[in-house]
Amino acid sequence: MTGKAQTANGADPMIEVVGLKKSFGALHVLKDINLSVPRGHVVAMIGPSGSGKSTLLRSLNLLSLPDAGCITIGGHRMDFSMGRVSMRDRDLAAFRAGTGMVFQNFNLFPHMSVIDNVMIGPVSVLKQDKATARAQATELLAKVGLAARADARPEQLSGGQKQRVAIARALAMKPEVMLFDEATSALDPALVGEVLAVIRQLAEQGMTMILVTHEMAFARDVADTVIFMQDGFVVETGDARQVINEPREAATRDFLSHFHGGLS
Amino acid sequence: MDYQWDFSGLWQYRGLFLQGLAYTIGFTILTIVSGIVVGTVFALARLSGWKIVTIPIMVVVELFRCTPVLVQLVWCYYALPMLIGIEIAPATAAFITLTMYGAAFYAEIVRGGIVSIDAGQWDAGRAIGMRRGQLMAKIILPQALRRMVPPLVNQSVLQLKNTSLLSVLAVPDLLYQGQLVTSAIYRPLETYTLIAFIYLAVLFPTTRLAHWLEGRRT
Ligand SMILES: Nc1ncnc2c1ncn2[C@@H]1O[C@H](COP(=O)(O)OP(=O)(O)OP(=O)(O)O)[C@@H](O)[C@H]1O
Ligand SMILES: [Mg+2]
């Protein structure tokens, strides 16, 4: 089963985005994004290339600083309505620490072993002692099926293994929210399944997640909600099955028509 | 050419040559360290993006990169004291000049090494909540350093060669001692040949090391 069980309790949303805007120079990439994700919900974000999916995800984790709007995650609020002049590195870092992020290109630290990649967050950010961090990292590596590769170097791993290490590294910070930006797009088709299985497991355990994905069947089966983005706007939001199987908007229908191969 | 080579007269001055070599190597090591430290500060300051620091640093870097070291040395020893009204000892002038000259080049090497690291590494570090300084120290610099080693060694070889210019300020480096010996025994051919060989003996292994490090990188 999926993460759909624990959801829809009507409590405070885990993620709340109000009036989010972001431009790169003259290019308006995000135009007034509003979003609310209940605790334990899984949201799949779909949309054409350049529609702003990555930028939205990066804004949620403050890797891109919004120009306007307000983001609340797990009760922590970042208000950009006065611009971003007063944002201090310390506050940004503290906010980011509560949200895990997984990238298309893994971005493992190549000069460290697998287990050090997983330990560095807890040790250097949470100031955990090394023994505790190591025990926790070992557990997380076992959870993603890589207990045996703890001492390997990232370069010795397959793409799917690298991505699972990246997931373990993010989980080591005990985040309340996980963001995945096309976590399987750089993988050999044969390796996609092992990463999706880990994500599915997280969904079942009630992790609040936003996934940018092109795996429509996965989005339909694992996500509670699907968001369709285009040109910096959320065009359609709704129940995952409804949006993917019977989209209301013509733009969504048009976009999905390119994916019928992936919808078994 | 039927010149009669005779190196025998040089042996009695071995102490002087050794002392000169010690000065040369000492100055080299000192100014490599100080040059890398100042250069790294320049590089980090430039990367901060604050115009108030980046512009003056760029001016200093270009000044030292685009004038000959000999001119810098002479300027620092003869002209600078007139500006600031304080006498500067030759060794001090030499140290300041070689440090700044080295720093100008080291700064570009360090900056280049840092910006060559994939932006994804910054993203990944930030995403787990690392602060800027932590990220630089634990993620970016360790990776950048590996890429910087070959150019740093090359620049340091030049740094050693440049110490030969100290002799114009009467700092008793290897070349200066050679000049002393020459004026004592009137054997410039032998003396300067020996001096050249001593430089070669120190630098050849160093450049080999640099090549080896460069080859190992890929
Ligand atoms: N750092 C940046 N500087 C300038 N423009 C950027 C930057 N990042 C993204 N953009 C632009 O913003 C727009 C949206 O990009 P974004 O990466 O968010 O799209 P996306 O929906 O994730 O697309 P894809 O499916 O190709 O990943 C694009 O036109 C892109 O070129
Ligand atoms: Mg993207």
From TrEMBL, chain A:
Subcellular location(s) of the protein: Cell membrane
GO molecular function annotation: ABC-type amino acid transporter activity; ATP binding; ATP hydrolysis activity
Domain ABC transporter: 15-256
Membrane-protein topology: Peripheral membrane protein
InterPro entries according to UniProt: AAA+_ATPase, ABC_ATPase_HisP-typ, ABC_transporter-like_ATP-bd, ABC_transporter-like_CS, MetN_ABC_transporter-like, P-loop_NTPase
Annotated keywords: ATP-binding, Cell membrane, Membrane, Nucleotide-binding, Transport
A Pfam family annotated for this UniProt entry: ABC_tran
Single GO cellular component term: plasma membrane
Assigned protein family: Belongs to the ABC transporter superfamily.
Protein name listed in UniProt: Polar amino acid transport system ATP-binding protein
Organism in which the protein naturally occurs: Shinella fusca
Taxonomic classification: Bacteria, Pseudomonadati, Pseudomonadota, Alphaproteobacteria, Hyphomicrobiales
From TrEMBL, chain B:
Gene Ontology molecular function terms on file: transmembrane transporter activity
Residue spans crossing the bilayer: 20-45, 192-213
Entry keyword annotation includes NADP: no
Cellular compartments per GO CC: ATP-binding cassette (ABC) transporter complex
UniProt superkingdom: Bacteria
Recorded topology in the membrane: Multi-pass membrane protein
Location relative to the cell: Cell inner membrane; Cell membrane
ABC transmembrane type-1 domain location: 21-210
Gene Ontology BP terms: amino acid transport
UniProt keyword annotations, A-Z: Amino-acid transport, Cell membrane, Membrane, Transmembrane, Transmembrane helix, Transport
PANTHER family cross-referenced by the UniProt entry: GLUTAMINE TRANSPORT SYSTEM PERMEASE PROTEIN GLNP, MEMBRANE COMPONENT OF AMINO ACID ABC TRANSPORTER
NCBIfam families: HEQRo_perm_3TM
Family to which the UniProt record says this protein belongs: Belongs to the binding-protein-dependent transport system permease family. HisMQ subfamily.
UniProt name for this protein: Polar amino acid transport system permease protein
Source organism of the structure: Shinella fusca
